Amino acid sequence: CIGMTSEARAIRRLEIESDLWEHFADRAAEGVSSALTSVETFSRLLRGVPSDIAWRVQAEGFHMNINIPIERLAGVLLLFLIIPFVAGTAISGYDTGRSGWPDEFQRFAEMSSSGRAATAGLHALIGVLTIAASAILLTSLGERSRRLVALASSLLLVAGVIMLINATVYRSMSHLADEYLATGNASLLPTARSLALTVEGLSMVNGTLTTSGLLALGIALVRLGMVPKWTVVLPALGAIGPLLWVGLGSAFPDSAWWTIAVTFTLVALWLLICGFWLLFGGSNRLPSMK
Fold first, then answer.
1. Does the pLDDT of residue 254 top 60, yes or no?
2. At what angle do helices 113-141 and 70-89 cross, to 10 degrees?
3. Which residue has the higher pLDDT, 4 or 33?
4. What is the SS3 assignment for 61?
């Protein structure tokens, strides 16, 4: 509700307060503990981010009457993007080789169901955060660099949707693991391996799209004069990583790990440097964009 009129802000807060009161009252009448209801409420918070963004756009459009320099908002956005980027890049794959897959899937099946559910939730959370970041990016910088910001926002949006799909595939593989652990049915192994390969592929596509989107954002920030020109080198070199992996993967199977590590380091460093640059004095070091 930041930047809205006091009346609209008060009405929205009363709506949320009423909804939460009804939620807690209904669950209490059903005998559910307040702790569990609080967990449900937090889940609703995460799942409701896209709806809240849509509500804000419908209520006011892409305009915010706030007196915060755009450089500060961009800095907060870059630091915020570290969360989905680091979490998405750090997701481990599996040894999907045909010879080692039965043992690998057995190990996966023996993991706790809650642990696998948490991983699926992490995938979904990454998707939601990335989608939210794309909306914030378009809202805050869309009018200043339409093409580049629209490109960056679109790439991040697609990356977020892919991670939501990734979460669904991972959950399916988890259910298959429960069935395999209960029955020992070896005929489930090929399907499970296909799902694991899909998770790995989607994670790689997500990383490539996210890195490309951040490169487009980096170019936009340089063209707007909001960050030094040399900073664009970091996401540019990071974007080369996935291309090297595709080109060298067949000849050097182990190249995936170091290219991902290099990409992760360069882009994360760029997010940190430019995020803090804009948040703490970027507008004072470069010409104001107001």
1. no
2. 150
3. 33
4. coil
pLDDT value of residue 158: 93
Question: How far is the C-alpha of 141 from the C-alpha of 223, rounded, in Å?
Answer: 12
CA dihedral (138, 143, 145, 151) in degrees, to 10, reads: 30
Residues 6+ apart with CB under 8 A from 1: 8, 9, 12, 13
Contact call for residues 120 and 167 (beta carbons, < 8 A): yes
- Tally of CB atoms within 10 A around 191: 13
Q: How confident is the model at residue 253 (pLDDT cuts 50, 70, 90)?
A: low
State what percent of residues in the chain have pLDDT above 70: 79
- Residue 162 vs residue 256, higher pLDDT: 162
Residue 103: CB atoms within 10 Å: 10
Q: Which of 210, 132, 195, 208 is nearest to 165 (CA)?
A: 195
The rounded distance, in Å, linking the Cα atoms of 180 and 271 is 42
Report residue 3 as tokens: 């930047």
Q: What is the pTM of this model?
A: 0.67
Mean pLDDT, rounded, for 160-185: 90
**Spatial distance between the Cα atoms of 34 and 6, rounded to a whole number of angstroms:** 31
Q: Reduce the DSSP state of residue 180 to 3 states and report it.
A: helix
